[in-house]
Write a structure and sequence with these properties.
2 domains; 9 strands; 212 residues; 8 helices; binds 1,4-dihydronicotinamide adenine dinucleotide
């Protein structure tokens, strides 16, 4: 396993993109690629690619390029996508249902194993093949299934209390769609990834306004 201590967050943030492009190359039957060709495809510089991958000890050989399957596997190992982290969704409203039904968790190293909602009219309904469970089942479910990741799709007002409860139940990572800033102290060192689709849209608006 390559060393990945002291690697900057910006490098880590670029790894999923490498992983995705390498997957596309494999699907096209490409087995080897130089950093220059990969850079052209990804619209970055070859030196950026070499620098990024050198953080993990470098994978390619001078003048030979990268073996696509090996590089993808190594990056996948760094990202932990082969680990099948148990994942639960909290809140089965519009967003929670969409994420339950239309997202390929296994492709990203996760396995959706539970969906919860506090509303008794929603608990008991099904999304795809999965039954939405009541929040009263959360403790027993977590002690039995030991999920690592919780996806928060609940109102902002409920996020603090629910995330504290989840951390106590052993959740190690939060994919937080609520617009609440989870306090890291409350969740005892778990990792948080905040998702704000609006930020991406605003960046697009900025792009329109500042187009040359
Ligand atoms: P929704 O109202 O359709 O669904 C929320 C669900 O959470 C409901 O089914 C409700 O019964 C359940 N719920 C409420 N309190 C709960 C609790 N304590 N425990 C478990 N379940 C509980 O809302 P929607 O549209 O699905 O949005 C969900 C959240 O995601 C909101 O906070 C919204 O602001 C946010 N959101 C964020 C986006 C982003 O880009 N970050 C995009 C869209 C929504």
């Amino acid at each position: 396993m390559p060393k990945n201590e002291n690697v900057s967050k910006s490098v880590i943030r670029r790894l999923p993109r490498y992983y995705r492009f390498l997957g596309e190359l494999l699907a096209e039957g490409v087995t080897k690629i130089s950093s220059r060709e990969l850079a052209e495809r990804m619209n970055v510089t070859a030196s950026q690619i070499r620098q990024d991958l050198n953080c993990f000890g470098g994978f390619g050989q001078q003048g030979y390029g990268y073996t696509v399957s090996e590089l993808r596997e190594e990056i996948g190992a760094i990202l932990g996508v082969e680990e099948h982290h148990g994942t639960i969704i909290i809140g089965a409203g519009n967003l929670g249902r969409a994420l339950a039904a239309h997202f390929d968790y296994e492709k990203y190293g996760c396995e959706l194993c539970g969906i919860f909602d506090v509303n008794p009219e929603i608990a008991g309904t099904s999304i795809v093949d999965m039954k939405v469970l009541p929040m009263s089942d959360l403790d027993s479910f977590c002690s039995l299934n030991r999920p690592d990741i919780a996806i928060l799709c609940i109102p902002k007002s409920a996020a603090a209390e629910v995330s504290r409860r989840l951390a106590k139940l052993g959740i190690k990572a939060f994919w937080n769609f609520t617009h609440y800033d989870i306090s890291l102290e409350d969740i005892d060192g778990a990792v948080v990834e905040n998702v704000h689709l609006g930020d991406s849209l605003m960046a697009l608006c900025y792009g329109i306004n500042n187009k040359e």
